[in-house]
Structure formats: C-alpha cells, structure tokens
Amino acid sequence: MSLKSMTGFAAAQGTYENYAWSWDIRSVNAKGLDLRLRVPDWIEGFENALKRKMSAALGRGNVTLALRLSRAEEEGVHLQVNDRALAAALTAISAVQSAAEEAGIALEAPSAAEVLHMRGVLKTEQIEQDTGPLVTALLYQFDSLFAEFINSRSEEGATLQTVLLGQLDRVAQLRLDALLYAETRRDLIADNLKAALARVMDNSERADPNRVAQELALLAVKADVTEELDRLAAHIEAARKLIINGGHVGRKLDFLMQEFNREANTLCSKAQNADLTAVGLELKTVIDQMREQVQNIE
User: Fold this and answer.
1) Sequence-distant (≥ 6) Cβ neighbours of residue 234 within 8 angstroms
2) Residue 125 counted as domain residue
3) Treating both helix axes as pointing N-terminal to C-terminal, what angle do 274-294 and 250-270 enclose, rounded to 10 degrees?
4) CA-CA distance, 127 to 130, in Å (whole number)?
C-alpha cells in the first residue's frame, strides 16, 4: 500500500436520454474527512449513495463533489388545455362582444393564441419520469470518476514518498554528523569541568569537594546528547516504516514530526559546540520541511 496525498482532482461529462451532466471532484488538506456534495436533491437517495462510496475509500481530506445536471425541457414538459377555464374565457369574450355591439363599438375577435394566454386556460405539467435508470447511469460513471480521483491522490502520494524518504536520509546523515561532533567534544567538556572544579576548590576553603563533584557530574549529564541521538534514530526508523508501508498514516507521521522537532531543539540547547549547534539547526530546517510535506498525506 502506497502513500496517498489529500490533494486530488478528476472531472467527467455524460448523457442519458434527455439528460446531460458534468461533474468534478477535488480535495485539499484537512484534519479529518469532510465531504461536501452539491448534487440535485430531487434524486432520492443519490447523495447518500455517493457518500457511502466516498467514506469507504477515503481517510482524510476536505472533499468537494459537484454535479451539474440538466434536462431538455421539451421532453419533460406537457401542455394541456383546461376545458373549464377555456369555456369560462369564451363565455366572457362573447359577453364582452355582445355588450360592445349594443354600444355600437366594433371589437376584433381575439386570436386563438390570445385566448390560450388567458389565465388558467393552458396548463403546464411536468412529465413524471422514473429516475432509477438515470441514477444507475450516474453511479456507473461515478465509479470511473472516483477511481481517477483516487489515482490522482496516489500519484501525488508517490511523489511525496520520494521527497520524504530523501529528507529522512538527510536527517539520518545529520544524526551521524552530530554523533561525530559529540564524540569530539567529549574530552573538551571533561577538561572544562575539571578546570571548573579546580577553580572552585582553589577559591573556596569551605566548599565540599563531594558536593561540587556531584554538581559537576550533573552538568556533564545535562550536556550529554547520546539519549537524544538514540531517540532520533528510533524516530527515523519508525517514520521510514510508515512511509514505505503507506496507507492512512498522515496523523502518525505528523505526531512523529513533533518528536523529531523535540529532539532537535534539545540537541541545540545542549550543544555547547559550534559544529553541533550548526547540525541541530540544520536538523530543525529539514524537519520543518518534512512536516510541511506530511501535512499533505492522508
């Protein structure tokens, strides 16, 4: 199983009988899975069917699906004359014409089109259609659309995997550099502590040699970075396994990035050496770059 990015896109168009549609699906980063569907609400159960398919395959991401569906009006509309309204309209017209004749006023007879436009004479009815075959056609195309969308996330995930493994290699090399510099400074720290002890003993007759030695030993322990570098090695191995095994590992990698950063910060605070400090700062830079990439992983 490979890594998947939370960024993806796919689009498609289709037709069925007197229907035509176009839709697209896209996603961006999110802490969880947020599905936002814009589909016709008159197709009963359609949105829920799409959500079930999407939820089963996706782990994280802000995912938007938009379906624009149209129907040829001439196929979906039926015109019908309202007989009662027509009879009432004709009666009214006849009465008006009779009254006009008695008053000596000549009126033109209304055309058939004018009569049809009188209120209530012509009824417009939507022809009810079975949406079952339409839903079947839409769901069939959605499967290929969704597969293309998943593939786009997988391709982006493969790119992220290459980048992250390269950054992990860099972190591993910096850790080895830190081990070398830590070993080089070990004797220097010991000499500095001995010199500090000698100065304290020379300038204080009341100083307890054992207590001073304990304090200096504590300082030596605080300056030791072996534990941080050992933990860093464990984090590198754990991150590499997650990246190679793939799947929905974004949250786990994000947590590991926090641990990486914690060890780098501690290394810098304990460095007491220009070379070791430089390595710690470079570690922080690479770890920040890794964390930016991890934010894209599902």
Assistant:
1) none
2) no
3) 170
4) 10
Q: Are 216 and 105 members of one domain?
A: no
Instruction: Judge if 95 and 223 occupy the same domain.
Output: no
Amino acid found at 255: F
Print the domain residue range for 212. Answer: 155-294
At CA 215, angle to CA 212 and CA 219, rounded to 5? 135
Cβ atoms 8, 156 nearer than 8 A: yes
End-to-end CA distance of the chain: 13
- Indicate whether 142 and 264 sit together in one domain: no
Residue in the block written with tokens 């229907």: 19
CA distance 252 to 250: 6
Contacts of 256 (CB under 8 A, 6+ apart): 235, 238, 239, 242
Q: Are residues 284 and 196 in the same domain?
A: yes
Determine the Cα–Cα distance for residues 5 and 150; give it in Å rounded to an integer. Answer: 9
Q: In sequence order, which ranges of the chain are alpha helices (DSSP H)?
A: 46-57, 73-76, 83-102, 112-116, 132-203, 209-223, 226-245, 250-270, 274-294
Q: Which residues pair with 15 in a beta bridge?
A: 20
The model's pTM is 0.69
* Residue 8 near residue 141, CB atoms below 8 Å: no
Residue-level pLDDT, tens digit, the chain, 298 residues = 789 999 999 999 999 988 999 999 999 999 999 999 999 988 888 999 999 999 999 999 999 999 999 987 555 555 678 888 888 888 988 888 888 888 888 888 888 888 877 888 876 655 456 778 999 999 999 999 999 999 999 999 999 999 999 999 999 999 999 998 888 776 666 556 566 556 655 666 665 656 655 554 554 555 678 899 999 999 999 999 999 999 899 999 999 999 999 999 999 988 878 889 999 999 999 999 999 999 999 9
Total tally of structural domains belonging to the chain = 3
